[in-house]
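Write out a sequence, fold above all:
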Amino acid sequence: MAAKLLETGDSCTSPADSGKPARRVRVPAYLKKIYWWAYVHPNAVRVFEREWLVNLILFGNYSALRDAALAEIGEQAPGLTLQVACVYGDLTPKLCNQIAEGSELHVVDVLPIQLQNLQRKLATDSGVSLIQRDSSALGFADGSYDRALLFFLLHEQPENVRRRTLSEVCRVVKPGGKIVIVDYHRPARWNLLRVPLMALLRWLEPYAGDLFGNALECYLPRDIQFSSVTKKTYFGGLYQKLVLTR
């Protein structure tokens, strides 16, 4: 079965469907204003859908960070898995190979162009559901997913959107389920990239500084208890993997 692309106005016909009518998904203004060059403009996909370029942007750490995230998902992930936001590179095709037979992978993104790009990268028999949704208003039923993955999404969001996204992801992952987050982290003082990178991100990605100044955990919803929270940093503290278990 080919990847199913469910765009604006479609509802997810899966156990994750809340049963409520799907609302029209609007592209956030901040995304069109700040990240048009990376995700929104048609040329963005043509420029950035190059794994060597993704690896360069992450200073050679893409494969290690991708594999660290996938290791947390497991080799035969049962039930429903949610990936929040499309990713340049081969993360999702590799994730598809780790979904157990009879289980499902859903990928949500607010931009149709990103969903269409991902559809082209997936095997015709992947069976992945690609759904246009805003990460801060997923619309899925409570506790409908067994696990969720967020790979370099949160640093691109304003604080209020980041908080709502985390609240939504925590809401739709069932108790006992796992949430895997890979993103930027405040680098160690000795990291030579610390000053120039922070200056560059302040220009290109103005919300990324939040993760340099605050622990990612401070944006988690306070009304949800986690049975475990583990963190590991990479490349002199520049990147982090945060694993939450409901």
